[in-house]
Amino acid sequence: MDGFKFGAQTGWATALAGVMLRDPLVRQAIRTCDALVPMPLHPLRLAERGYNQSWLLARRLAPDKADPHLLLRIRHTPAQRTLPRS
Fold first, then answer.
1. Of 38, 32, 44, 30, which Cα lies nearest the Cα of 75?
2. To 10 degrees, what angle do helices 12-21 and 53-61 make?
3. Where does the pLDDT of residue 20 fall: very low under 50, low under 70, confident under 90, or very high at 90 and above?
4. Residue 44 to residues 29, 41, 75, 81: CA-CA distances in angstroms?
5. Which ranges of the chain does DSSP label H, i.e. alpha helix?
6. Which partner for 55 in 25, 38, 47, 61 could form a disulfide, CB atoms 3.0-4.6 Å apart?
7. How far apart are alpha carbons 47 and 22 in whole angstroms?
8. CA 61, CA 18: separation in Å to the nearest integer?
9. 42: helix, strand or coil
């Protein structure tokens, strides 16, 4: 799935959402939630990557409940993949 998150292979959002929606627990959770809120990227990270993979996935899972504007990331932190394991 590196291609989806880091390789601009945004088409994976549809396939991943399809797999997730096969699970009755996922469908139930989406049905009963008020909103599906994707984790925002800091503007610098968004500019670097060009898209927010969690927003792409959320809008495929629940287009009527996904809202990318409910949270705001204000701190630019190092990418998790660059941090030491500890």
1. 44
2. 50
3. very high
4. 32, 8, 10, 16
5. 2-5, 12-21, 24-32, 43-49, 53-61
6. 38
7. 33
8. 8
9. coil
Please, are residues 81 and 49 in contact by the beta-carbon 8 Å criterion? no
- How far apart, in Å, do the first and last CA atoms of the chain sit? 23
Cα separation, 56 vs 73, in Å, equals 17
8 Å CB contact between 70 and 37: yes
**pLDDT tens sequence across 47-63:** 988 899 999 999 999 99
| CA distances (Å), origin 62, targets 20, 49, 79 | 11, 23, 27
